[in-house]
Design brief:
430 residues, alpha+beta, five-stranded antiparallel β-sheet, four-stranded antiparallel β-sheet, 11 helices, globular
Length: 430
């Protein structure tokens, strides 16, 4: 049973789930109880319908749920989910984004003084790279057999086994090894580097820097492997062409070294290094004023709204009923159309919203900012309610056959009627 659950979990992560999570993906016990209560109420009132059976429908329903979660997290990241803090997030600036970008990750209360910092980047953090031998596109020089080699990374050793057939070329084998490494998901990427007609297998670590004090992030060897050795020497997989290095920079004149190009400053700023500074020239990082922060938050909100619509529209050809969700989102925006237009936010015929940045900035710095802010906050709150509805019942937007409607006033709970997506992941395994 544990193997089945592992397969289901891995299948979900690799097929449907987004690649990243945020602090808003964790919930308190009371929040989970509220979700459960909402599901019970929804299930109690829902009609009976035939369950979806196609794999495409499963992916569609889960996709809608994940896109709704992404929009919710986007809105939450702009100050939190409490009505008082919605869209109130302070925004950081960098006066040279070719060197570094910054975001504000701290807490801010009226009257707080958040100092700016001066940054001079001397070196970016780099990954380890092993570049193998360049081999011609001819028959592989290894005898047909079962070979294996070991990669050690993060204190763990992984063995890779493969067969070489008598008619395979060097490139054939290199491409197969690249797929083996990439599919393993151990923190390495593999690709082929070409020099004329010759190719070399290149291994690159996902992690940058050297946080352990070791000279290497990963090593490749077949000295103690279980199958036939010889792969490492023949393809040159153990040759380190670039050693991983830390980022080096001056922060307010003080030299710092970190293993990643992303780091935090005093639990206030998160900084992403992009390039090396001109010698002696610093980049200032600080907080934008209230008007600039509010303008950026509104632009991020609209960007999240448009991204959600774009994600929904990709299902239109195969799942026409997704147009209903697009219309519902447009209907929410239409309720605030006149106020949004006055701010430079124009609702389009495809339900997306365009931003006139100059008009938006002028509006946010005008005398009527409080009223405009109330409108955009109400719009954001309505979007949050819609994302909660989609998350609870994405199959609302699937074509389905209704079997029976419940007797009004005599409903009873049928836990899985509108939410079979909670179990559909197991269909292929049980």
């Amino acid at each position: 049973m544990s193997a089945v659950l592992t397969n289901v979990y891995n299948h979900y992560l690799t097929t449907y789930a987004p690649k990243g999570t945020s602090q808003f993906d964790s919930h308190k016990r009371g929040e989970l109880r509220n979700i459960c209560d909402s599901m019970v109420k929804l299930n109690k009132e829902a009609p009976w319908f035939l369950p979806a059976r196609s794999t495409g429908t499963f992916g569609y329903a889960i996709g809608l749920k994940e896109h709704a979660r992404t929009l919710r997290n986007t809105i939450a990241s702009l100050g939190g989910l409490d009505e008082e803090n919605l869209l109130n997030k302070k925004v950081a600036y960098s006066d040279d984004e070719s060197v570094a970008t910054a975001s504000f990750i701290g807490s801010y209360h009226e009257g707080d003084i958040i100092p700016s910092v001066e940054l001079e980047v001397q070196n970016l953090a780099s990954t380890q790279e092993n570049l193998g031998k360049y081999l011609p596109a001819e028959k592989a020089g290894l005898e047909p057999d079962t070979y294996s080699f070991d990669i050690t990374i993060n204190g763990l050793s992984y063995e890779f086994q493969f067969n070489i057939k008598g008619n395979e070329t060097n490139r054939d084998v290199q491409e197969r090894l690249a797929r083996l490494v990439n599919n393993a998901g151990i923190g390495l990427t593999a690709d082929l580097h070409e020099s004329g007609s010759d190719t070399a297998l290149r291994l690159t670590s996902s992690a940058t820097g050297n946080s352990t004090g070791s000279d290497t992030v990963f090593t490749v060897s077949d000295n103690h492997t279980s199958k036939t050795a010889g792969t490492v020497e023949y393809f040159g997989l153990d040759y380190m062409s670039r050693q991983a290095s830390n980022a080096v920079f001056l922060l307010n004149g003080e030299r710092q070294s970190v293993p990643s190009n992303t780091f935090t400053v005093g639990k206030v700023y998160q900084v992403q290094l992009k390039g090396v500074s001109t010698e002696g020239q610093t980049t200032s990082i600080g907080l934008k004023n209230d008007v600039e922060s509010l303008t950026e938050n509104v632009k991020s909100l609209i960007g999240g709204y448009n991204s959600f619509l774009k994600s929904v529209d990709q299902y239109l050809k195969t799942f026409p009923k997704s147009s209903r969700l697009s219309r519902e989102m447009g209907g929410i925006a239409f309720q605030y159309k006149s106020e949004l237009d006055a701010m430079g936010l124009s609702l389009q015929t495809n339900n997306s919203i365009t931003v006139d940045e100059k008009k938006l900035a002028k509006t946010m710095s005008g005398d009527n900012t409080s009223s405009q802010f109330s409108t955009i906050r109400n719009f954001a709150s309505s979007l949050l309610q819609k994302t909660a509805q989609v998350s609870l019942d994405p199959l609302k937007y699937v074509e389905k056959t209704i079997v029976a409607y419940k007797n009004p006033g005599h409903e009873f709970i049928s836990p899985y009627s509108p939410s079979p997506y909670s179990g559909m992941l197991f269909n292929s395994y049980c």
